[in-house]
Protein: Polypeptide N-acetylgalactosaminyltransferase
Amino acid sequence: MRYHIRKKSAIKIGVAVLALIFILPFLISKLEGSSSESEALMKRMRKRKGVHHDTGIPVKNDVVQNVVENPMEAKDLKPVEPQRKFGPTAVLKPGVLGNFEPKEKPAKSGPGEGGQAVYTSMEEKLRADQSVREYGFNMVNSDKIAMDRAIPDTRLDECKYWQYPEDLPTASVILVFHNEGWSTLVRTVHSVIDTSPPHLLHEVVMVDDFSEKEHLKGKLEEYIKQFNGKVKLYRNKERLGLIGTRTRGAELSTGDVIVFLDAHCECNKNWLVPLLARIKYDRTIMAVPTIDGIDWDNFGYHPVYSTTHHRGIFEWGFLYKESQVPKQELDRRQHNSEPYRAPTHAGGLFAMDRKYFFEMGAYDPGLKIWGGENFELSFKLWQCGGSIEWVPCSRVGHIYRNHMPYGFGKVDVKIPVIQLNYMRVVAVWLDPEFQEYFYTREPGVRGYPIGDVSKQLQFKKEHNCKSFKWFMENVAYEVYEKFPPLPPNKAWGEFKLEGSNKCWDVMGQQVGGGPIGQSYCHHYGGNQLFRLNTKGQIGVGERCIKASGGSTLHLHFCDVQPTGPWSWDENTGVIREQHHDKCVEGMTDGKLLLQRCEPGKASQKWQINEIYTWKR
Structure:
């Protein structure tokens, strides 16, 4: 018996030895190959020292860095399917101050402290008015305010008691600017640094979009040296516009998360951590801070909304809107200060995982200058697996300009650039039926060439992105209620008095203002492009025309149920208002009045001529 056991053991040992003889050389060669690969990788890494780890952009330690000649563009970065992994969540502990909650600072006194308004004296008025024309802000008042002024804590009280994960990603805050006023720009930089945990604020990346102002040259370069390399300044060698400059800022950044801010903001207490925490939880989330208002004239700081939550939506001409968050969205959460889903955002202030931003193709490189990029990124995120959340515990003040004080240089486009951008977004991300809603609202741009969108459509196909119908039904469902689909146009264009050169004109009026009238036909659309739809509404832009008091025509908000009293007889030229059974008459003094209908009367004969300004 023992003999048989020893015999079996000997056989097993022999087999094992033979296996080692044959397998050992193979293992050694593999290990050597692996070692060689590791050494080669280390060599490549040493060779790439000082080079950006994703895009190959040289990273210098100088405080002032010029944009490299040929950085890898977002369009050259091959999108890949993002890996979704959920991380730790924040925990609310009522009564226990949050782990990132900053200490209270001593109260300060001075102009604008506490977010108080600052006013202009009579002696300063001329200079103040000039600064508003030049910058869109009252820079005389801004210059009176400290660069590090204190602003009121506008957060919900609950926000003070959130416990966030300790190992949050680092942030690169990107500020792009062109001919920005000195104090509004520098106050933004101070605000970011003063309100962000130093170990989480990787850098502030300032990108100058070819500014001409003298104070933005050497003076700015010297000023930011006080931040010991935390603030980096890059300069475009030609005008790129907001969209292109933001993409460049993202390419030049080296933090885990990119946070875009406009260059005229003031960050509130503990604003950064809640954004980073959401991205730590899910890297496919775009986290959007709640935006407070800063007055362009007196710089008073105030919440835009009081206690209600709002989120970004749109109407069918793609004007950005905000509406109160539907109850079913709020009910997803346990606490009032928790983030909530939003269909879109205003575009200026948001945070994203940097790598995910490029995995999603960044901004469409065919979008020009400014406008529509917020919708492009929003639709792409939602339809292709990401999401957008507004974060109530992150508050950032933003100055809304009195007007846009500068142009965008020479642009070879025959329609407004923003409409061209909208058309690209519509062509890629909207289903055909929804595309018609846009062109019903903006008929004058139909047919204009939008450039090549094949790469964007290929991205959509490769990522199995959902339809726009899915997005509308599951994410942006309140748009149907606030802005119902537009009925088809029966006629649109210039409403021209037959035998004259006078057309209907908005005359610069707003809702609640004076009557619209007639002026000389300029053939550029805009304030002279009206639409009569099959339901009897006359629209211009997002507004509708109604007869107030039965005599004059005024701008009004359009009824949610798209019906109206207007009709046009193409044969007689009469435009009839059925509620009062009167017709529109063009008066010799330029007024438009509802008068008793008199078929054949010359001043009641109207032509409606379609106008495509880009075909002229």
Notes: DSSP finds 15 helices and 26 strands in the chain. Residues 314 and 320 are 5 Å apart (CA to CA).
